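Fill in residues.
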């Protein structure tokens, strides 16, 4: 079904066209903002996020596609990273857009099956932030949720947002190596990059 939807995908709007043309017209990223490994296309978004052409009013409008799903962002993380994730959720929910975030320990229904909750969270969210840390790589539920997100949007379309912290390039999940990622060095700057990416 996803391949059929890809073939019948509508032409991009003028906003998307102008965004794509500005991206293609720009020169290649500087070496300071690119993490390279062989021929892998994955690069860091550090310092490369442009201001979104979409205004807050467009996102919050009652007719906006935003309201077709229960959540704007599903945060996939390991339990050992909960403190950092709670800070990120607090930041996103406190923005002018008042992002609706799914945080498993807070928003999952008590008594529901873990698998059901993870799948519902992925399907009910517009995009998914994957906080890839050593704890994420060790947690089978994180990998399961990552695969669910990739199955939901095989061509990504910007919906899967990998955020890398304290992980060597060689350990980065192979399934995500075709996606650009945000490297979390300075927390506040990374939070802003995540926010700008979700808006886009």
């Amino acid at each position: 079904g996803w391949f059929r939807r890809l073939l019948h995908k509508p032409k991009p709007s003028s906003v998307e066209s102008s965004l794509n043309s500005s991206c293609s017209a720009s020169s290649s990223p500087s070496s300071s903002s690119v993490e390279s490994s062989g021929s892998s296309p994955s690069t860091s978004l550090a310092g490369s996020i442009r201001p979104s052409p979409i205004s807050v009013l467009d996102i919050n409008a009652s007719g906006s596609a935003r309201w077709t799903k229960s959540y704007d962002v599903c945060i996939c993380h390991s339990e050992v990273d909960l403190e950092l994730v709670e800070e990120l959720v607090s930041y996103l929910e406190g923005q002018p857009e008042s992002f609706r975030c799914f945080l498993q320990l807070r928003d999952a229904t008590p008594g529901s099956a873990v698998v059901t909750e993870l799948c519902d969270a992925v399907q009910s969210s517009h995009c998914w932030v994957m906080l890839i840390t050593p704890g994420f790589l060790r947690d089978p539920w994180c990998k399961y949720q990552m695969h669910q997100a990739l199955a939901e949007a095989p061509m990504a379309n910007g919906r899967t947002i990998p955020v890398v912290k304290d992980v060597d390039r060689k350990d980065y999940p192979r399934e995500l190596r075709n996606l650009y990622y945000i490297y979390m060095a300075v927390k506040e700057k990374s939070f802003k990059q995540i926010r700008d990416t979700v808006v886009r």
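The two ends are 25 Å apart (CA to CA).
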